[in-house]
Amino acid sequence: MTAALALGGALGCGLLLLVTAQPLGRPRPELSLRLGRLSAEGRLALEGQAGAPGAPMFSSPLLERTLRPVLEDAGRLLGTLLARAGIELGDLEQRLALGVPRMTAPQFRGQQLATAAVSGLALPAMNVLGVHPLGPWPVWLWLAAAGCGFAAPGWQLSSRLGRRRRAILEEIPVALDLFVIAASAGLSPEQALVEASRRLEGVLGQALRDVVREAGLGTAPGDEGIARLAEREDIPELRSLAGAWQLAHRQGLPLAPALLSLAETVRDRRRAQLVEAGGRASVRMLFPVALFIFPVFLVVLLYPAGVELLGLGG
After folding, report:
1. Most buried among 99, 128, 213, 275, by the most CB within 10 A?
2. What is the separation, in whole angstroms, between the first and last Cα of the chain?
3. How far apart are CA 119 and CA 143, in angstroms?
4. What pLDDT is recorded for position 25?
């Protein structure tokens, strides 16, 4: 009876995977989506939506065809449960768009479930195989491993966002200098944005080129694109840049003096952050010195003196 149920379940899972992998029965694109391709804004929206589902979750084509639909459905169900429980992260889509641009929220939650399952089942499997040098792995350690596995994709995403933020902060002074040079040469704010985006590399340069691209397609003006960029990245320096840009664009004020003072402010703030980080590093150095280096240094100094004293006393 058990073997029959197992075979029936395996057959049902196989048929489900085969049916869901076929193009038959899938809905055709809606008329609104097909009409959206006729406008620039619609093309941008469809391009952004089409890029995310195409991101592979596995390097193996077999796992991509079999496990990816299951993980996406499980992640979608988990997102629904979290939303009903009121603990859903509202900015997950925005964080994924910045950290992992081609990954959707269901894929991310499915990845969390997969890593939790692998981490949680690793210790029981080691118990079964007899790999427990310090004794059988307890159940609470299984749960802890599963929790760490569930949180690992979130930690990786936070790390990527932190690196992106630091890269943008390092590129902002150079971008402001390029804006000042272009504006001082008599270029308009739009032309200054184009020239600066061409010469600036890195994360901020790519973001500014996207702003220029949207402005060229008529989706959003340059000042509005920079404001969206500042809101999306949530960096105070970009918010100040967006405010100065909108003020110069709407009221006709010169752009170069405002950006020049902003560049000096950003450099002073960055210099203060570096000095503060250096102070924290010097404090952190006290712990290894006091715990490891200083005792060894005392032993090296006092051991010969102790031997001499003991020898003289004998």
Report:
1. 99
2. 86
3. 9
4. 40
Core vs surface per residue 33-67: b (16+ CB within 10 A) or e: eeebeeeeebebeeeeeeebeeeebeeeeeeeebb
How far from 169 is each of 62, 102, 175, 295, 300, CA to CA, in Å?
Answer: 41, 24, 10, 41, 46
Is 50:56 a contact under the CB 8 Å cutoff?
no
Question: Which residue bears the tokens 């100094």?
Answer: 301
pLDDT in tens, 63-113: 777 777 888 888 888 888 877 777 766 677 888 888 887 788 888 888 888
Record the tokens describing residue 48, joined without a space: 């952004």
Q: Which residues neighbour 249 within 8 Å (Cβ) at sequence distance 6 or greater?
A: 189, 221, 222, 223
Distance CA 270, CA 173 (A): 9
Q: What is the dihedral of CA 157, 162, 167, 173, to 10 degrees?
A: 140
CA–CA distance, 232 with 208 (Å, rounded to integer): 13
pTM over 0.70, yes/no: no
Say if CB 173 and CB 274 are below 8 A apart: no
Long-range own/partner contacts, residues 252-261 (CB < 8 A, 24 or more apart): 254/183, 255/179, 255/183, 255/189, 255/192, 256/179, 256/180, 256/183, 256/184, 259/176, 259/179, 259/180, 259/183, 260/176, 260/180
Q: Which two tokens stand for residue 39?
A: 């406008």
Tokens 């939506």 appear where? 49
* Model confidence band, residue 52 (pLDDT cutoffs 50, 70, 90): very low
CA 191, CA 184: separation in Å to the nearest integer?
12
Q: Which two tokens stand for residue 295?
A: 């005792």
